[in-house]
Specification:
The complex is a heterodimer of chains A (about 210) and B (about 220). Chain A is α+β, with helices and mostly antiparallel strands and about 210 residues long. Chain A has helices at about 10-55, 75-80, 185-210; strands at about 70-75, 85-95, 95-110, 110-120, 125-135. Chain B has one domain (about 5-210). Classes of the chains: A alpha+beta (about 210), B mainly alpha (about 220).
């Protein structure tokens, strides 16, 4: 194993440093090549995923514009759950607005905030809700994720008067929405955030649908 | 070392999860379903094969002072490459493994095999060792994942579809409704309990064998992080 033999002691560190540098260059180079090969696909995946996600919360409503281009940025800490600026995507059919997709945050999840997309038709009915980012307990609170359960589809077709305001809660609190076995905090936070998003939409419907992108 | 012995070591006698108790953090965290368990097992296997190969090729002429540093570097590189490829070609699986994919870097199993075995062995033995150890780890991970998924959610292999690039729904067999599942099995304590039972079953079997053939000593589990 020892190939250094009679090498002068003081040259050893230099050789070690050069070897380490060479190994670094080769490794970083290989990672860079893989990155170059994978990057376009990763970006395409992310874009496709975003478009698919947006289309999903529209629940089959037909539209003919590019959702990712037709965006306004809004900010409402109280009803959208965060004071950061959030995008609102608009779906149009022949130039006429048919739906808006709000990004809403439930700040009071069991493990931090839950980020979701809320699709609302021009008539104020929910077209679909999807959770896009959360850290809820796997197997318990993560049933809000449509890959884990169909609970989130229960919002479809609801609106601010359906059910009436005091029943916009989980069953445990006397409302119309199911909670999960072992997890009430998570669905409670989601129900509240969806209602808040609806309220926000009602209050700003005209501006949200009409405003020019930007 | 004969190929047979290498495989026996990896799968049983020196099983990374059940005997060496290496890599327990991802083992316990990702084993909540068969799909993600298999995904992480395969990713770990890929990294092990790469790192053992590199360790075996470089091991004999790297200076001892920097050997460990170079291994850590190449392992990190291999893990990054696996992670990027997974994000590009299996995005669903990549999402479900989350942080535990990059954390393969810190799985001591990988560095331990490179340093303690592969760097002193010919390439063939190093590769066989990576396959054996990786498979040993994968099988325990898969067993634990399947057991937890079955007990906790009443399904078998429900998210194996993630491995094929699809989404989680539609694949697998549902045995009973998820609502009747044994919740503890899905939570971290359940993972500990089930792994403990697996360890106990293995040690019990070893003891039975040892008492049947007097004169052989059992090697008890050696705990390392």
């Amino acid at each position: 194993m020892d190939t250094t033999g009679a090498e002068p002691v003081r040259r050893r560190p230099l050789r070690a440093a050069l070897l380490l540098a060479a190994a670094t260059v080769v490794t970083v180079g290989l990672v860079a090549i893989v990155n170059d090969l994978a990057r376009p696909r990763i970006e395409a995946n992310e874009r496709a995923q975003r478009v698919a996600q947006l289309a999903e919360v529209l629940g089959g409503t037909s539209y003919d514009n590019d959702l990712l281009q037709d965006v306004v940025t809004v900010r409402d800490a109280e009803r959208l759950g965060t004071d950061e600026p959030l995008p609102v995507y608009r779906a149009r059919q022949a130039g006429r607005p048919v739906a808006a997709i709000l990004t809403a945050v439930a700040p009071d999840g069991y493990a931090g905030s839950i980020r979701m997309l809320v699709g609302i038709g021009a008539d104020g009915r929910l077209l679909g809700v999807r959770v896009v980012a959360h850290r809820e307990t796997p197997g318990l609170g993560d049933a809000i994720d449509e890959r884990k359960s169909t609970w989130i589809d229960g919002f479809k077709g609801r609106s601010i008067g359906d059910p009436v305001l005091e029943r916009w809660q989980v069953r445990k609190d006397g409302g119309d929405f199911d909670q999960f076995t072992g997890a009430t905090v998570t669905p409670r936070a989601v129900v509240r955030a969806v209602l808040n998003a609806l309220t926000y939409f009602e209050a700003n419907r005209a501006t949200l649908l009409a405003a020019r992108p930007g | 070392m004969a190929a047979r012995d290498i495989f026996r070591n990896g799968l049983d006698a020196q099983n990374p999860a059940l005997v060496q108790l290496l890599g327990l953090c991802p083992l316990l965290a990702v084993s909540s379903s068969a799909g993600s368990a298999l995904g992480l097992g395969l990713a770990t296997l890929t990294v092990l094969v790469t790192s053992n190969l590199i360790a075996s090729v470089l091991g004999r002429w790297l200076l001892p002072e920097i050997r460990l540093a170079v291994f850590v570097l190449t392992i990190a590189g291999a893990v990054t490459a696996v992670e990027l490829s997974m994000a590009a070609w299996w995005p669903g699986l990549h999402d479900s493994l989350g942080i535990f994919l990059p954390l393969i870097v810190t799985n001591c199993l990988v560095l331990a095999r490179a340093e303690a075995f592969a760097s002193r062995q010919p390439i063939r033995a190093a590769l066989l060792d990576a396959l054996a150890m990786g498979l040993g780890f994968l099988l325990v991970l898969l067993a634990l994942g399947s057991a937890r998924e079955f007990l906790g959610r009443g399904s078998i292999g429900a998210d194996l579809g993630l491995l094929l690039g699809g989404d989680a729904s539609g694949s697998g067999i549902r045995v009973f409704a998820a609502a009747h599942g044994f919740l503890l099995a899905l939570l971290p304590p359940g993972a500990f309990v089930l792994l403990g039972l697996m360890l106990a079953a293995r040690n019990w079997r070893r003891q039975e064998k040892a008492s049947a053939t007097p004169g052989t000593l059992t090697t008890p589990g050696r705990a390392t992080s």
